[in-house]
């Protein structure tokens, strides 16, 4: 008992880097993989996490107790079919219902782009995605899922994208909370946020570690103003988005703005996913914010009047328009095509509503690059206006601080961020909460020592006996000392009274006795001396059991008193006082009284 | 541990469990069968109902003609219908810590409890239970407030008078506890006390008890509850179903190893097979429509209606009913249909798979889209202009005493072409029809009750092996009308403990162990010795700390309070109740007769003095 258990984190691509998340947690002898993401910026092996950290050869099933996916973004689930079907993992994969619904569609989409369009081989197939999804066990919010007898997980609403969850992982009294991205607006969701669960470690993403973002309302107003201005001067607005997530929120925003301002310029949403995506939002409306849920019976926010499906040919239409196009980082597909067409006109605008990974065109133009090298050595002059709006709901500093206040972790671990920014946040956390904050690099292991208390079953008799000594009500200010015996047998720990322990184990009690000789002068006969002692004790020690036994002894509680005299001098008496270990407390009292009597 | 039984209705239970230091109310069922004693509330003026003769006792001594009306050979109360509330005198309801709700039918008495008893606790329910429960309450309130009745009849409740009344009024019980419906304001206030929970979520109550809802398979979000501490487990089984309808299947295995299992909410129709009833429902419906008649289905606006619509969806084409309009009339019809589509997590596997596609889980979405099913908030407004006959109307309330159904009874009752099909099992259909007699319309009784029957429950109990079973007394004997059917009762060994309204049961529990936590420092200092292979013992002497019902063990003197005084410090060793007064020129140790401690402290002080 009292063994110290460590939590280890060999990190895979989730350390001080933004791009793909995959974390391995060892807690109480269990290994859990948190997220299994893919890096969008790479086209080779580096896009997947390096699973050789776990094992060099063979399948992962023997090494992992479960896999948990936090949300459907590909940088968190993109490597899942590769991990489960190509490397090999047959254990449970947990994700929420919306994630389970949307994840395979995004994976298939991603596969199509990679294999069918780019012609890459050595990639997972459609069948592998299906087989992988069969291993998924859906998670409900707040449901406590017992992975096995010792490991339990619980999901909380995270409010990042549809179906995003924080997870609380618990083994015995040790626990870890993992969250990708908490959004402080999560609180507007009906399911309250996280309990004060005091995990040993809180693992959080820190993509926007330094930004303490201004209020959401301000950003929304700013966004609408920019779109409106561009439309007014006859320009076109391109908003590269991922099909699901922020896109739907921005659509609602524009839809209501158009309605209110009575605007006529067309809004388009590209890709076939649109309708489907909105349908998901409709069916999983319990996962959206409270405002949307409240009004959904009267009017479903995801049935748009002004937003129409985009057709490739519309990009060349004259006049102003707003287009939402995928993907969000301008690294391929329709958004890139439209961008190329519109980049040359300074009247146009591109609004990047989220983070862009290094290596993507989105990242380049956000960093002010105005000349882009395209395939075939062509260069593209970027004349259109580039705006960045941090709408992406990744955790920002304020959100993380709030989360720490809520959950009260003993240690903090930051992942999925850039080293400098993480350093800033680390300092802030250590200063404000005085807890240790770790930020391991890729492939590095952070070990956190936990110090769990040991749960034991105490016999109610013993506890009640102690309670009774402390008065009728347990008083937290006056704790009581308790003596008992701990029995350790077949993984069970029982705390019982010593007597019960002896009985249960079939052991005999070891008797420890003391005898003390007191010499004194007394002219009376032995029985008379004894009787004098008896009557005296009786008169002094009220409330104690004192007996004069027929065998010529006096018993005070468990102390035995005998008198004998030496053969030579009958006046010289020897008093024998004998007591057992347990009777020790009374002995001194009895001895004092007897001595006092003799001096009289 | 005690169980207080506040309701005698086996499917609308309301029990209070005192477990460890907590007081937990299990369900809050409202017995609505009392409304059968009242006259129907017509939506539009009904000459027939307004001209009923008042009741005067045969000898003319009691004249209650204002309160009681003679209608179709029975006497009814002419007043706003009243409900029979759970018992409120058996224990102080303000001491209730939490209320656990198992399904939306079992929470209808909630506003009476949370708003009028000084209740300050929390109510736990799943999200579908809360949302649909709210709709059902809203519906009843709306039904009542739409046709306000100024009169509140009370004279007939006088014991002396009630004794003289004809049956069934004479035999009505607890009439003084009957209350009128609550207001929407009370509903909102009551529901604001609900805390949402998910299946298998573990909710800690005061650190002493853990409660957890389990899927019960009966309705959207319906649950059974586990109430347990580290060493005791009570299972509360309310409306549960093993049939494959729309909700998530019942979680049976988590009920295992219970010390006590409280069993309520079995089927009210133990002899009617739900599948057979569904078939009969469809064939009677088709037959009436083909003959040019209308079909009236009195029902609740959530629950079995989803299954009925799904069944009809498959049946419509084959029975060539494609052109027959289906109407669903209720102030919450639209909400109910919409809400049913958004609870993917709470649905059976098949329906979940549909959501992943993404398609609406219930086919009534398609019925609405293709205009086969139309819903209206009431018979007034759009419905009156769009309504075509012959048609099928689903509407409430199943008691036939209030709601739009009253209007259709008056409208269609006189034609033998029309049919009324009863599907809800909560009311005796003969009693429900009593004030409308004589009727020409056909009556078909197809009660669909998917809750556990006696066969299923005995199998379940064999499986989960509870030490003791507690159940309503109705389950311990065959139904009165079928006294020879010994298969329609619970036969268990040991026999179940029966309860009735106002029973207080002492639950047989032998608690022997409690959980304590040994803090790591103490744990590390323990010296275990192996006395037999695999068995080690260590003696423990430690201080027990009890806080929030959690006990921890730690080392001896742990709590020292330091107080600054003008001349020095006072140390207070709280556990030993000892004071050490440290001053520049003296130290004063005040303690009880504790020689070893005194000696230790003396030696310590001397040692420090020598150092100086």
UniProtKB/TrEMBL annotation, chain A:
GO terms for cellular component: cytoplasm; nucleus. Signal peptide: none annotated. One of its GO terms (biological process) is snRNA processing. It is found in: Cytoplasm; Nucleus. Keywords: Cytoplasm, Hydrolase, Metal-binding, Nucleus, Zinc. The keyword Glycosyltransferase does not apply. Residues 19-212 form the Metallo-beta-lactamase domain. This is Integrator complex subunit 11. The lineage of its organism: Eukaryota, Metazoa, Chordata, Craniata, Vertebrata.
TrEMBL record, chain B:
Its main location: cytoplasm. Keywords: Cytoplasm, Nucleus. One of its GO terms (biological process) is negative regulation of transmembrane receptor protein serine/threonine kinase signaling pathway. One of its GO terms (cellular component) is integrator complex. It is found in: Cytoplasm; Nucleus. Residues 305-433 form the Beta-Casp domain. It comes from the Eukaryota. InterPro entries: Beta_Casp, Integrator_9su, IntS9-like_C, Metallo-B-lactamas, RibonucZ/Hydroxyglut_hydro. Belongs to the metallo-beta-lactamase superfamily. RNA-metabolizing metallo-beta-lactamase-like family. INTS9 subfamily. This is Integrator complex subunit 9. It comes from Amphiprion ocellaris.
